[in-house]
Design brief:
78 residues; mainly alpha; 5 helices; binds zinc ion
């Protein structure tokens, strides 16, 4: 099975939530979430924000989430 890195997870999250990913990628993300609590936590927050709608996320991501994402990504890229 394809191995997914945290950054890919974040990049693919929106498509994942919309069920727009190929089955193989969706399963790879599922597997990643199972073994990566920070990403699972991020998914939960993202899902909560997603209730506001895709437009809302794109235009005004909650500051807390944006900060967390930024911190998360800068930690990942070393
Ligand atoms: Zn992860």
């Amino acid at each position: 099975m394809k191995d997914v890195r945290c950054k890919e997870c974040v990049d693919l999250l929106l498509d994942y939530l919309e069920g727009a990913l190929p089955k193989e990628m969706e399963e790879a993300l599922d597997a990643h979430f199972m073994g990566c609590p920070p990403c699972l936590d991020f998914l939960d927050q993202y899902r909560a924000s997603a209730k506001l709608g895709r437009e809302a996320i794109a235009t005004e991501m909650p500051k807390e989430l944006a900060d967390k994402l930024h911190e998360f990504l800068s930690r990942e890229i070393e």
